[in-house]
Amino acid sequence: MTPGERVLLRDLARELAEAAALPVQAERIRMWRGLNRLSPERPMVLLDPQNGWADLVPDTDLRCGDPAGREIERRLRQLLFRHRAIPDDHPLTTDWPVAPVIRSSGWGVADTTMRTEARGLRWDPALKTHADLARLHPAKLTVDRAAGAERLSVHQELFADILAVRAVGVSAVRCGLTRKLIVLRGLEPFLLDLHEAPAFVHELMSFLRDEQIRELDFLEGERLLGLNNGPMDLTGSGGIAATDALPGADFDPGRVRCRDLFAWGESQETAGVGPDQFSEFVLPYQQSVLDRFGLVDYGCCEPLDTRLSPVIAAFPRLRWVSVSPWADRALAAGRLGGRYVYCWKPQPALICREHPDWEGAERQIRETLALARGCAISIVMKDTTSFFGEPSRATRWVSMARRLAEETAGRG
Q1: Contact between residue 307 and residue 328 where contact means Cβ atoms under 8 Å apart
Q2: What is the pLDDT of residues 281-320, one digit of tens each?
Q3: In terms of DSSP bridges, do strands 295-298 and 341-344 run parallel, antiparallel, or are they unpaired?
């Protein structure tokens, strides 16, 4: 980095520290802890721009030329944009985590995934025939502690007097086995396999389950897991994970275990698969992974209408459940009640298209708050692929959702 880039990054870090010191941050953290105890004061509101960040903090705003500095700058500018223009319930802190450097040998087949111009993914599946399954082998994982220490040193030297720079472990645990499966096999072949070659699907799911369990064993054994119950951690499907329920009562700060963490399970790729096949080909394999964790967040974009009962039965430590834009909101409210966090995802297309439907977006929020009255509600706007170059849309939606959530709380 040039001296000028270092000055820029430190100035941005100071702005973040000032924002993190505001009293509203502690209030937000307190309210998320209440929601995660299933004792909310009001519905919580969160906007996760995801790919929409390209409209909110475009590359043209970045001034660092150094690649590493550029990514640090991007992160700082995103947090500061959130502070200035996204008045949701996302807390900001001075925490600046630095992750370890972990390498994998892979499974013996090439990863062909690539980004498209439309911000999607495309790939050429490696398992073109059932015989190709024999090409897979367990991945070898290694940790490069020297590289991790060097990375930490760079961030400490840059920010240690401004932000709380610290080494952290792996804290985001996603059990999306079918996501990995379709990259290896392809979606259409997988759906045909369910009918024509069920034994092959079971064998592939067993391999993926065993690989995730092997990875978790490695992370625990090497002391590479990190807590994820903080105010800037996400549960998985979008909510803030701040909770007093984690870590466990017998927690040893020097050895984070899976049972001290939130974990996220989902199977979006099987949205068109019936409940019986889901219960046979997906759920048992996820159970083996997610049963190791202290709390579970389940679901993403897939509607869980026909799966709520088996999901609830499968995961005794379930805390968050995703209610996607395609889910039956009333059915979910009846099944979830106040026993789980009702994590509702509004339809992003209403505000992420050329001509936003603001009346429709407000009507949808009002309907959901009425249908889910009595639930512990989190409203999470995500999958916002584009704001069509209008950052003000993010501000407008959050302001509207906050107003309606506060009105709901006011009515008791």
Answers
A1: no
A2: 999 999 999 999 999 999 999 999 889 999 999 999 999 9
A3: unpaired
Contacts made by residues 226-230, CB under 8 angstroms, sequence distance 24+: 226/97, 226/168, 226/169, 226/170, 226/171, 226/256, 227/171, 227/256, 227/260, 227/261, 228/171, 228/172, 228/173, 228/261, 228/262, 229/261, 229/262, 230/93, 230/95
The model's pTM is: 0.94
Other beta carbons less than 10 A from residue 25's beta carbon: 18
Cα–Cα distance measured from residue 185 to residue 205, given in angstroms and rounded to the nearest whole number: 11
Residue 232: which CATH number? 3.20.20.210
Report the distance separating Cα 321 and Cα 337, nearest Å.
Answer: 11
| Nearest C-alpha neighbor of 95 from the set 25, 26, 20 | 20
Distance CA 228, CA 225 (A): 9
- Count the domains in the chain: 1
* Range of the structural domain that residue 89 is part of: 3-410
Residue 119: pLDDT above 70? Answer: no
Average pLDDT, the chain: 95
Cβ–Cβ < 8 Å for 330, 375: no
Yes or no: say if 212 and 177 are a contact pair by the CB < 8 Å rule: yes
| Cα radius of gyration rounded to whole Å, the chain | 22
Neighbouring CB atoms inside 10 A of 77's CB total 20
Q: Are residues 330 and 371 in contact, defined by beta-carbon separation less than 8 angstroms? A: yes
Q: For residues 212 and 272, what is the distance between their CA atoms, to the nearest angstrom? A: 25
- Residue 266: closest CA among 379, 348, 179, 385: 179
Query: What's the CA gap between 136 and 106, in Å, rounded?
Result: 9
Q: How far is CA 177 from CA 24, 86, 340, in A?
A: 38, 33, 23
Give me the half-sphere count of Cα atoms (radius 13 Å) on the Cβ side of residue 196: 8
